[in-house]
Amino acid sequence: VAELSSKDTPISVKPDGVQRRYVGQIIQRFEKRGFKLVGLKMLQASDGLLSQHYRELVKKPFYPNLVDYMTSGPVVAMVWEGLNVVQSSRRMVGPTNPAEAPAGTVRGDLSLHVSRNVVHASDSVEGAEREIKLWFEVVEASAFFWIYV
Ligand code: ADP
Q1: Which family does it belong to (predicted)?
Q2: 10 Å Cβ neighbour count for 130?
């Protein structure tokens, strides 16, 4: 098994983004920037997966709504690779609350409300590693690269 790299980060299109047909546009933004897609899958998130993914939020009053939202349809989970991808992708996604997200960010361009903010990106290298391990398995696809499945 290859080692996780701080050059990798998870980015997910949440159920509202999938329902609104934004998967292609969101992938295109990260490809245009120069990042490389190294993992991609569509899945229905389970309550158990979400309680681990959002472990800091399970006590929040909005948590039940967050789970309803995140299980309202499939999620497109991805892993992206590249220079400073954790920080840069988070900047491209924009602040948690779309009302505060500048135009040009994914959330600022495609969403209005914090409870329907279209996309997920990790906010730290430690978080990125933890989330990749939670959502993906890393597979050595050849001597030259690995992919996340
Ligand atoms: P981010 O997704 O930007 O890393 P958080 O980890 O703080 O932000 O929150 C996770 C997700 O929970 C947010 O993306 C959003 O979907 C939801 N959320 C956060 N705060 C609220 C809130 N006050 N009301 C409703 N949903 C929220």
Answers
A1: Belongs to the NDK family.
A2: 17
Exposure pattern of 41-63 as b/e (b: 16+ CB <10 Å)? eeeebeeebbeebeeeeeeeeee
* Residue closest by Cα to atom 13 of ligand 1: 96
Rounded CA gap, 50 and 47, in Å? 5
Q: What is the pTM of this model?
A: 0.95
All domains of the chain, ordered by start, with CATH?
8-44+75-148 (3.30.70.141)
Residues forming the active site: 120
Centre of ligand 1 to C-alpha 115, Å, is 7
| H or E stretch covering 110 | helix 106-110
What ipTM was estimated for this complex? 0.98
- Ligand-binding annotation for 117, yes or no, is yes
